[in-house]
Amino acid sequence: MSRRAVVVGAGLAGMLAAAVLANAGVAEVVVLDRDELPDGPRQRRGLPQGRHAHLLMPGGLTAMEEIVPGASLRGRLLAAGAHEVSLGSGMLARSPEGWLRRWRRPGPVMLTCTRALVDWTVRAAVLEQTAVEVRRASVVGLTGSSGRVRGVRVSGPGGEEDLDADLVVDASGRGTRIIPWLDGLGLSGVRTRTVDSGLVNASRVYRVPAGAERFPLTVVHADPYVSRPGRSAMVMPIEGDRWLVSCGGTRGGEPPADPEGFLRYTLGLPDPIVGRLISGAEPLTDVHLSRSTSNVRHYLDKVRDWPEGLVVLGDALGTFNPAYGQGMSVAAFGARVLGQELDRAGGLDAPGLARRVLRGAARPVDAAWAMAVGQDVLYPGTRGGGRPGIADRAATAYTRRMTRAATGSLAAASAIWDVTSMRTPPTRLFHPSAVLAALAGPPLPLLTGPPLTPGEREVLDGLDRTGA
User: Fold this and answer.
1) 0.90 cut: is pTM over it?
2) Most buried residue among 326, 391, 414, 464 by CB atoms closer than 10 A?
3) pLDDT (tens digit, 9 = 90+) per residue, 128-148?
4) Which homologous superfamily does the CATH classification assign to the domain defined by 4-54+115-194+294-374?
């Protein structure tokens, strides 16, 4: 088959793309990354959001396991300490419309662990099962012409050199240089949109207190409907008998980096449950802040004359506010599209392959973008969002009604689970059963507090050092 493919970026999107290429029969697959990659599940410099909460949704995990068959990624993650959390029964979640119920029907199951563990597990599985080669190198540009990319230009200790390739995949993430790289080939005018709510993430790791090992994932969601900055917090179980506690605040409501302020922030949310939990838990790290949170969409799929031999996937195509838990799944969906198009084309030199991959990968990006931006534009001080139009306001009103119904309707809750889990597109919310549930509203009364079991309430009361 084809000789060589070069993937820029050894993160999740890059390693999944490399696995697809190797499984498609590409003779040489080279992954380039400027960072020294850790030899275990540890934070690395090139992943600014790595210390904060990440949720591996069922739809994304299914795509990953299809891409790396036989690796048992779920089994590997669980063996390393990841947790299974049911969207239907395994969470305490306060939505903008009130507390969600925990139903006997478990619903889709997501995995929770550190982002470093996900990246390490996928990278290790790909390197074990394929002949993919990872090299440390900085890519400074593309070679070829506006009609055909022929490889990449790499900077090293001895200067710059060219590495030829039949296909180049840019999976370099949020920090992609794809726009200036295209400029270097004479391709300019790519439309880019940024919607920035000013979100700041603050996270800290705690030891799980004795007796709290089975306490549910707990989240207080931000409320975009009250004309105030969005403020949220989550307690998420991760590997090593630890809790990852992540707070997020949009412009004007940012969480602080000092430990006392971090605790005060959690206690000042519409429900103080996160602060009550962590007030009696032992912190294991400092508070880590991150501001690389804006939604950015590079509309590369709209370029009229896209060059052969170049594909862009993952965050290099579109990034989203990480609060919505979409990024890892969207990266997997993009890599899956690459595999599907390679199967149809039969080789890297098939005319139009790169454009077809780009357009296919853009579809899940656009769905995630619409969900994230549709919320972020409602926060005060959001930049780049513009004024919501009639369609935007109608979508917001319907989303609120559906969320309100989900506080007491299994049909509405199930529709939201299906979309949140990324197993179905957002059109699932307009299925007749979902529309009827939204119109009918919640048949059960609103909960006045979190739906705790007696044992969980005892754990919470035992940990609470705040007097709340």
Assistant:
1) yes
2) 326
3) 999 999 999 999 999 999 999
4) FAD/NAD(P)-binding domain (3.50.50.60)
